[in-house]
Amino acid sequence: MKIGYGRKRIYIIGAGIAGAALAREIAAKPIFGEVVAFLDDDAVKIGSAIGGIPVAGPLNDVVRIMKTIPADEAIIAIPSATNEQLKHIHEIVSRAPFRQVKILPRLSQILDNSAHLVQTRDLNPEDLLGRTPVRVSLKKSLSYLRGKRVLITGAGGSIGSELARQLLSGGAARLYLFGHGENSVYEIDRELRLLQQGGVGEKATIVPVIGELQDREYMSFLLKRLTADVIFHAAAHKHVPLLEENPVEAVKNNVFGTLNLVDAAREARTERFVLISTDKAVEPVSVYGASKLLAEEIVLAADDGRSNFMVVRFGNVLGSRGSILPLFQKQIAAGGPVSLTHPEARRYFMTIPEAASLVLKAGGTGTGGELYVLDMGEPVLVRDLIHQLIQFYGYTPETDIKIACTGLREGEKLEEKLFRAGEELEPTDFPKISKLIRASMLRRDLGSFLDDARPICYFDPAQPDLFRDRERLKGLLGDAVPSLQCLVGYGESN
After folding, report:
1. Is 474 designated active site?
2. For 88-98, how does the pLDDT look when each residue is reduced to its tens digit (9 = 90+)?
3. Residue 124 neighbours by CB under 8 Å, 6+ apart
4. pTM, to two decimals
5. Going by CATH, does the domain composed of 138-322+350-375+416-437 fall within 3.40.50.720?
6. Which of 280, 292, 413, 432 is catalytic?
């Protein structure tokens, strides 16, 4: 079969720099299709041609234009588009008979507007929900990583894998992709290599590493061997109700895993260590929140002036493995109902790429021993998010897809906070990142908690009865974290 026979026909929405570059790349790789038209609302461009491809008209006329210039696929090539603009574009292209609609990354995910075909992906709900992501100059944000060896824990997860994608453009010498799940590490390793082949970023050496944070000796051996300059610690168990049922594993991984990594990093003289934390660590009412609070305390206590150990805290991330969005999508696909815990439940939301770009920015501008909070905007009613998601898939809320209130699950709050009452945010040089003026939230000494919890998480022949004693551990958590005291099963009474 000849190359070009039956090739898909493509519209590019946006006749700017990114759209023109994309058209040139597709022309050079005809196996991927043929660009047959641009759509752009700029009246000056309409009627002209870019590289011999007509700018056929404004987006609103897409249905009419497709009658004379048929196409199979549309690619939205407007990296600077706001969420409102993308919603408008989605509404219009949904009326046209495209088989597929793709999108180029946001400005914060690409370097100097140099988007590539390999970066295009399907348009998804996260592109339209919530606020318009903050724009961060990737080139400036990543300058501190040039020539460095960078380790990402949880590299196969949602945040870790996005950090890795953006770090491709940072000029790092090596990217170490650390995780305990071989499939997820394999997937991001393979994806990064394909991105590099497609011209994305610089030629960093990519090194996948399978291992367990909970293995203290291995972590010490590994960090001495890798000599990483910078660590982004994104690995954690995150599902709130699941960790309520598995408190020992939550503490073993999120607390002792962090301790093992921190101690290994200090031994290896790592220059910079960034823990990725969560709003659920603020006055926690769940095992997960308490474990992340303890992880924060471990990292902040580790800073000794020679290295920069810091924490970056933010709220929910749309589409991450720990978020509720994938569940909502499955419920909609099944015809509903969509489960809402409470009609007044509110959460902070941002997209995965925005969270990753701000973490990278904070990692370069922050100083050791400090906790930084990302500007999440105003909290959003989860009910409104569900309505928008149902509408994205072309249904009417409550008419086509019902919403069922199920009640708050164990360990959940009605509304999350990014800091406690009485704490203050201090501005930094970047307006969307603030430093938290804080005090420890723990009621007991961190070291003594770790000593008491260790034989519960790791078998000690001298104290065999304590091993995996979840009730004992929950009591220790209640003693250490005051906000857990109000919950049944936590605290000294246990």
Report:
1. no
2. 999 999 999 99
3. 319
4. 0.89
5. yes
6. 280
